[in-house]
Every structure is written in structure tokens, then in C-alpha cells.
Design goal:
About 30% of the residues lie in helices and about 25% in strands. The chain has about 240 residues and is an alpha+beta fold. It folds into two domains: about 1-85, Phosphorylase Kinase, domain 1, CATH 3.30.200.20; about 90-244, Transferase(Phosphotransferase) domain 1 (Transferase(Phosphotransferase), domain 1), CATH 1.10.510.10. The protein is globular, with a radius of gyration of 19 Å. This is Protein kinase domain-containing protein. InterPro entries: Kinase-like_dom_sf, Prot_kinase_dom, Protein_kinase_ATP_BS, Ser/Thr_kinase_AS.
Length: about 240
């Protein structure tokens, strides 16, 4: 694969979702990166193209921040029908860490200082501080992430970094921003109450349009902290209807 004329060797797929795939790639100097490749065609929704170009814009704005995943290069090529984002690669995400620790803790005696989730108190403090610093960094840049969840915190060489700015938006003059979601259900356990309210309008067809501010990200952070302590999100025991 090639990004802006620079060749890479594809080593394998890291993940995929919808029209995008993320690959582990290597350049000519044997450096490893993550390459997000989005396929676009005449049937691709303009909203989707805008979502990924918006992600490129925000990552460039946040360039150099140690708590945000770094964008190395990007290419929007309508002729080749694809959008490519070349980023630093991580070892794992917080969601996988939480799942692994929970499985390890089940049915075994936990040492002193271990929380119900299976994580140690000091480890939770370490992760929590880095999460707060990451979200504080984007809020200082007047950006609302809008989709904070464990899977969107990536461990890169021991540092927790915030990823996936696909639906993130710059805050407007009233301290909120309109965010369009493809679906409200995917990350329901971490959504703030206002994130479930469709304000309508925005020219997004039948997709929900939600007005969010910094407080919505703070709510999501609280849900993640609860999970790091107790092993599940605070409302995981409720059925979908009860959550709504």
C-alpha cells in the first residue's frame, strides 16, 4: 500500500468496522505504524467522508500532545476511492486490559490492594490520571470527543492515548456542539443522558443529532472509572429500555 507516494508493507489486519479497516504496516526503515483505510465510492454517504476528514483535521490540531494518538500522514484520494490515516500503533486498548484482568480475577484470591475489577489500585490511579490529562487536553482545544469508552484509549509504549476522533467536534459559542451518530446503541453504557436526546435538524436525514458539551465527556469518564473499579459499567445490569 502507498500513502502520498510512500510505500508500506502490510503485515496484517488490526481491526475493522463498517467501511474501514486498520492494518499493521511497515515502512522502508522497518518502522511499524497503524494504517486506517476507508473505502469510498459513489454510494458512500457524504457524512462518512466528512467524518474521516474531520478526524484528520482534529488530529493535526492535536499534533504533539503526548496523550493523543499521533497522526503521521493522511491522504484523501477520491480518484482511488479511499481515505488513509497513518498513525502510531499501540500494543492494546483499555477495553482488552479490563476484560483480561476481569477474567484473571474470577475464581482466584486477590492480593491486598486489588479492586473488584481485578486491577490494582495504583494501576487504576496511573490510568485515571492519563485519561484525565488526555480529555483535559482536547477540552482545552475546545473539542468534545463524544464517544469516550475503554476501547478508545490505546496503550502506546506504556502511555495511555486517546483515539478515534471520527465524531468529535469543535465546541461552538454556546459551549456545545452538534454531533451526528450513525447509531446510539453501540456505546450506550458510557453515554451521558443528553447524548440520548435527538435534537433533530442538522441536515442529517434520519440520523440522530445530539447537542453535547464537555460535561458529556466527563460523564463518560466517570462510567469508565466505575468499570475500572468494579469490573462493569455502572448501568450494565439494566436492559436497554431501562437505560433509555
Amino acid at each position: 500500500c502507498v500513502v502520498n507516494g510512500r510505500p508500506f508493507v502490510r503485515l496484517g489486519m488490526v481491526g475493522k468496522g463498517g467501511s474501514s479497516q486498520v492494518y499493521r504496516v511497515m515502512d522502508a526503515d522497518y518502522r511499524i505504524f497503524a494504517l486506517k483505510k476507508v473505502h469510498i465510492d459513489t454510494h458512500t454517504d457524504a457524512r462518512m467522508v466528512e467524518m474521516y476528514t474531520n478526524e484528520i483535521t482534529l488530529l493535526r490540531k492535536l499534533e504533539g500532545n503526548p496523550h493523543i494518538v499521533q497522526l503521521v500522514d493522511a491522504q484523501v484520494d477520491t480518484g482511488q476511492h479511499c481515505i488513509q490515516l497513518l498513525m502510531e500503533i499501540g500494543e492494546t486498548d483499555l477495553s482488552k486490559v479490563l476484560q483480561s484482568q476481569k477474567r484473571s480475577a474470577e475464581g482466584t484470591a486477590s492480593p491486598a490492594g486489588t479492586l473488584p475489577s481485578g486491577l490494582g489500585q495504583n494501576f487504576v490511579r496511573f490510568l485515571w490520571q492519563q485519561m484525565l490529562e488526555a480529555v483535559d487536553a482536547i477540552h482545552k482545544e475546545n473539542i468534545v470527543h463524544g464517544d469516550l469508552k475503554p476501547a478508545n484509549f490505546l496503550l502506546v509504549k506504556g502511555m495511555l492515548k486517546l483515539i478515534d476522533f471520527g465524531i468529535a467536534k469543535a465546541i461552538q459559542s454556546d459551549e456545545t456542539t452538534n454531533i451526528v451518530r450513525e447509531s446510539q446503541v453501540g456505546t450506550l453504557n458510557y453515554m451521558s443522558p443528553e447524548a440520548l436526546l435527538d435534537t433533530g435538524g442538522g441536515g442529517a436525514g434520519d440520523r440522530p443529532v445530539i447537542k453535547l458539551g464537555r460535561a458529556s465527556d466527563v460523564w463518560s469518564l466517570g462510567c469508565i472509572l466505575y468499570q475500572m473499579v468494579y469490573g462493569r459499567p455502572p448501568f450494565a445490569h439494566l436492559r436497554v429500555v431501562a437505560k433509555l
